[in-house]
């Protein structure tokens, strides 16, 4: 079974470059389906399992997808299907965002309903309600959502989102790009990845204003074309390295990190005592002078509040803080699966409802642990970097979904970390990792 082996205690220094954002590139690949003319060139595309799945999804619908160095070229002129294969959709929730582009351009789409996942139930009711407000008929049958636009195509509408859902905002924004008239999304998600998507849509000929604020206005156009676009850096990958640097760094430079995208995380790291220097093209981080982070109270919420996708990594960091911290998860119902794994490494955490209460311990000890979701995997790697002895992390398919060469990047900044796929032998193996 594939696993990562980490020998804890080595300092991290030098520079690490952040890749393009997973949560931006996925809807951008889906948005490419809107182009009836021309070819899109997307740059800064990270090497991720999710990206491969999304590229395969648009290819299965008829788009011609050509990989190039650092990016991808997509010709979506001849789409022949509005039903992405179930096998691809089930692997990745984000594939539901092909619904908006397909419905807008072809008047119909049939997408397998994404189920819940390891972080809790993840309904798509707000996506469907938004598309219905634009005139679509939605029926759910045999696990699929069938969406059909009215004879004259989708019509612009005023849509208030009960929750500022990232995915619903994306689906509605893409569907509205080719609808008749104006769509207004109120209580829209303000995430930087949605701004990146809006910029790409506008480069394709759409008219989207207000992305990044609560209210997005989209004036529908008749036709869209391919465009060139460079994906923004991944703020969660940047945050993951900043947390690692705040714990184990000797002055770690996270190149490409955009401080504006992670203000809440930077504020928390500074509150914990880490030193942060915002530079033109990245962020440098040093650990607290005392060598130990101060305890924190952290609460996840929608952007620009503290991101749920950085909850597990921060929780791992706080296991060795100099006191008691609280971490409250408000976005997803069940995003504390990593707690049990961190406890196996000696962390002192108990859950009270939606809050994890973390009593800092002097040190963690290496153990064999399993990622339960993508960010849980990153949290366990961070825990392994600071633990005594050897840590063996399993469940790598989660990490591969969203981190581009995580092991190689940590190796390059001084971590003692190796990845073993399948039956390769583990030279570093020791009893403590069992
Ligand atoms: C590919 C991608 O970009 N994934 C991100 C996106 O996921 P995703 O787009 O799935 O997250 P949402 O913003 O939609 O979900 C936020 C909350 O709204 C709820 N909800 C959402 C839609 C809906 O129709 N009904 C409903 O009740 C969800 O269950 C959740 O509790 O934003 C999340 C919240 O920042 C991040 O953790 C994910 O990394
Ligand atoms: C929850 C995440 O992603 P997804 O929405 O793709 O599951 C994540 O990136 O942490």
Can you put this structure into words, describing what you see?
The chain has 434 residues and is α/β, with parallel strands linked by helices. The strands form 7 sheets. Strands 23-24-1-25 form a 4-stranded mixed β-sheet. A 4-stranded mixed β-sheet has the order 2-16-18-17. The chain has 2 domains: 3-19 and 233-420, Enolpyruvate transferase domain (UDP-n-acetylglucosamine1-carboxyvinyl-transferase, Chain, Alpha-beta prism); 22-230, UDP-n-acetylglucosamine1-carboxyvinyl-transferase, Chain. It contains 14 helices and 25 strands. The structure holds uridine-diphosphate-N-acetylglucosamine and phosphoenolpyruvate. Uridine-diphosphate-N-acetylglucosamine binds next to helix 1, helix 5 and helix 6. Belongs to the EPSP synthase family. MurA subfamily. It is found in: Cytoplasm. It comes from Alicyclobacillus acidoterrestris (strain ATCC 49025 / DSM 3922 / CIP 106132 / NCIMB 13137 / GD3B). This is UDP-N-acetylglucosamine 1-carboxyvinyltransferase.
Map the helices and strands.
Elements: E1 3-7, E2 12-17, H1 22-31, E3 35-37, E4 40-43, H2 49-60, E5 64-68, E6 71-75, H3 86-89, H4 99-106, E7 108-112, H5 125-133, E8 137-141, E9 144-148, E10 158-160, H6 166-177, E11 182-186, H7 192-203, E12 207-209, E13 216-219, E14 224-225, E15 228-230, H8 235-248, E16 249-255, H9 263-271, E17 275-279, E18 282-286, E19 297-299, H10 311-318, E20 324-328, H11 337-344, E21 348-352, E22 355-359, E23 368-370, H12 374-386, E24 390-394, H13 396-402, H14 406-412, E25 416-420
Parallel strand pairs: 2-16, 3-14, 4-15, 10-11, 19-20, 23-24
Antiparallel strand pairs: 1-24, 1-25, 4-6, 5-6, 7-9, 8-9, 11-13, 12-13, 16-18, 17-18, 20-22, 21-22
Bound molecules: uridine-diphosphate-N-acetylglucosamine and phosphoenolpyruvate.
